[in-house]
Amino acid sequence: MAARDRYSRKLECARCGHSGFADASENDDKRDGDIGFRIDDMPVGFRPERPSGNPAEFMIRCNCGNVFRFLQKTIYAPGGEPRRRNA
């Protein structure tokens, strides 16, 4: 059995602000074309919308109905999380 690279990624809904950390893993051997991506643990309030073996195509749905990609293009500076709007 091949080893797997494991990591966590923060999921945050842009619509309602709900957040949590998803535990994901990929095949350790990157020589093969298939990286074997999968989410091992999804935080409460999120669910897979369109699962994929490619993290850039894996879509997630928040309980509020918002759908977004597992890999986001937004990168925050250290300590620069987005500000929450007061409703």
Strand order of the largest sheet: 1-2-3
- Helix/strand-derived class? mainly beta
Compute the gyration radius: what is it?
A: 14 Å
Counting DSSP E segments of at least 2 residues, the number of strands comes to 6
- Number of contiguous helices: 0
Task: Give the % helix.
Answer: under 10%
**N-to-C terminal Cα separation, in Å?**
50 Å
Domain module tally: 1
Query: What percent strand?
Result: 35-45%
- The oligomeric state of the chains shown is single chain
Give a written overview of the molecule.
By secondary structure, this protein is mainly beta. The chain has one domain. Helices cover 0% and strands 39% of the residues. It has no helices and six strands. The strands form two sheets. The chain has a three-stranded antiparallel sheet, with no helix packed on it. The protein has a three-stranded antiparallel sheet with strand order 4-5-6, with no helix packed on it. The protein starts with a strand and ends in an 18-residue tail after the last strand.
Throw out a few tags for this protein.
87 residues; mainly beta; 3-stranded antiparallel β-sheet; 6 strands; 0% helix
Give a quick precis of the structure:
By secondary structure, the chain is mainly beta.
Topology of this protein?
Elements: E1 4-12, E2 19-27, E3 38-41, E4 46-50, E5 59-62, E6 67-69
Antiparallel strand pairs: 1-2, 2-3, 4-5, 5-6
